[in-house]
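Lecture 7 notes: from sequence to structure.
We start with the chain below.
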Amino acid sequence: MIGNRLTHRTADGVRVPGTWRHAFICNGGSYFLTDLFIYADGLVDCWELVTLDEFEEKLRSGWVATALPDGGRASAHDLASWTFGEPHTWSTPELLLAEVRDTIDELNGRPDSTGRCLAAVDVFMGDRTEDNRAAALAAYLAIPETVRLYALGDMDRKDHPLRVLVAGPGGRTPDRHGDPVTQEEYDEAIAYFEQRARWLAEAPSRVPADGAADSTAPAIKIYHSYPQRALDHPGKQALRNDYPAPITLGDLTYPSVAHAYWALSVAEPQARAAVATAGTGAKARTLAAAAPRREGWDRARTAVMARLLRAKYEQHPDLAEVLLSTGDATVLYDDADSGWWGDKGGRGRNWTGRLLELVRSELLAGRAGID
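Predicted structure tokens for the same chain:
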């Protein structure tokens, strides 16, 4: 549960809600008690801002530690340090990942694993087949073990009726090692859920008059790379500005968006021509950095980049499909050389990512016939 542990970060001028929880990070063999920040767009801050896939890798590698060794050195930064003695943890990489996924769903107002389990129970109550019971049981087991207690929000009975229901007469509840569920217990559980359904049906709606708030789109990261040639199946690498995808502007054709951008930034025509024909986008950047800029470039560069990105995806329909395949995801553009164009772990302006989202929206509007 998130409770009052609310925070946020600002991305692209948008406030992204988040929460935090305690965690240990293992760095250099020492364990640091710190805060794990979880955001609605699927990013997790564990001393750097990472996607969920990257967070899973951090768990598997032990960077975010769920196992604490006896005798291990620990620190709470400037507050205290200690050595673990007979430590015991309740978490595993799989369990913590499941809890973080639930937290992201909760931040977005979506059903988490508990909500999905209760939805499966509603299906079973409407059609009491063994297949539907099995689906409800699977949904119950998908709830992280640490929160399999108050799914029903019932402080008195906890989740006992839920466990009995998904087990069925003669079955054993997931947490029960004694006798099988009796018919009397099962009938009581059925009556409990029938009464619960009536109470929920009579409860007033809490949906705002103007509709529920939109959830925060998950984020994807376009990793920094140095593409040398066009590929048959480039994946998201095709969204890099230096990916070899020639664009034509007027009478001139450039090998990539990066070539065009850096060439247009240069004041002197001869140097501009050298930049435009550089072997790679990285070389174009290097040549441009050594040449004088055009006057007013820093104030015009964002509009120039927008025009270049529109040209790229209009002139390369296959690459437009790659961009459209990102759905409504927040695009984080990794640029090791620029805090203006790149995200830089949440500290950059991420203008390339923002413009890619804009062009994606324009492509969708065009397909929908919206002028």
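Points to note: The mean pLDDT is 91. Residues 183-202 form the longest helix (20 residues).
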